[in-house]
Design a protein that fits this description.
By secondary structure, the protein is α+β, with helices and mostly antiparallel strands. 29% of the residues lie in helices and 17% in strands.
């Protein structure tokens, strides 16, 4: 008991010191903000991990599907624009729950190491690229476009068997430093890149710089593919190519 306290207050002070009613509620009130923040952070991180897993799987599935498709009655498989559109739409459906093509960009590249009719020796090049997604159409949004080169001209590369539409030489392969992939001699690799703008469940402050999610996937072409060009026959059916100068969902 503090010296000098009036005698009439001393009984009240002793009762207050011995009173334990509401202690648990008071402790809970002090710890609630910390518990709430920890819980919200856990929910946000779990959602971020789930979105990363989905995008990673979509990239791998798309590369796998695009490395298999093709059609022809002959032993050499021709790849058509409609085949590419089909696998891109499959990726769009897979990512519909997270708005993949609204909030992101998918780039499919054919990295080939073959000798075309206009070559004197095999050349590794990005013969063609096809894209889907709305992001990347402005200069401030450019990081959502291909990070590893492009097949130029964007609208026509790979659409015929001419040197003008041969695509872009890529002797160093594609991918991040230390994990680059190259096409084996005489064949090609389907390389998929996905860039996605993550939408936080709670707040962007909880995930910091994780706004843009970036994943790649690649598969070697596993059939005897005709690498001359992408075909778009009028009757089989003709379709609008998903070239990378277009930004659609």
């Amino acid at each position: 008991m503090r010296a000098g306290m009036p005698a009439r207050l001393r009984p009240l002070a002793r009762r207050l010191r011995a009173d334990r009613r509401g202690l648990a509620l008071l402790e809970f009130a002090f710890t609630l903000p910390l518990l709430l923040m920890t819980g919200l952070y856990g929910v946000e991180i779990a959602n971020l991990a789930l979105v990363n897993l989905r995008i990673s799987q979509i990239a791998l599935n798309l590369a796998d599907n695009a490395s298999r498709v093709g059609t022809t009655p002959l032993s050499v498989q021709q790849l058509r624009e409609v085949d590419i559109n089909d696998v891109l739409q499959a990726a769009r459906y897979q990512g519909s729950s997270i708005g993949l093509t609204t909030r992101g960009r998918i780039i499919v590249s054919s990295l080939e190491n073959v000798q075309q009719s206009y070559d004197t020796q095999p050349v590794q090049r990005i013969h063609w690229q096809r894209c889907i997604g709305l992001r990347g159409s402005t200069a401030s949004d450019a990081t959502y476009n291909s990070s590893y080169g492009s097949a130029t001209p964007l609208a026509t590369a790979g659409t015929d068997a001419t040197l003008a539409n041969a695509g872009t030489p890529q002797p160093g392969g594609m991918g991040d430093a230390g994990t680059r992939v190259s096409a084996p001699p005489g064949t090609g690799v389907i390389f998929v890149e996905i860039n996605y703008n993550y939408k936080p469940l709670i707040s962007g402050y909880l995930v910091g710089s994780a706004a843009r999610i970036h994943y790649t996937g690649s598969f070697i072409v596993r059939d005897n593919r005709d690498f001359t060009q992408l075909y778009n026959p009028v009757t089989s059916p003709a379709t609008v190519p998903s070239t990378c100068d277009r930004y659609t969902t």
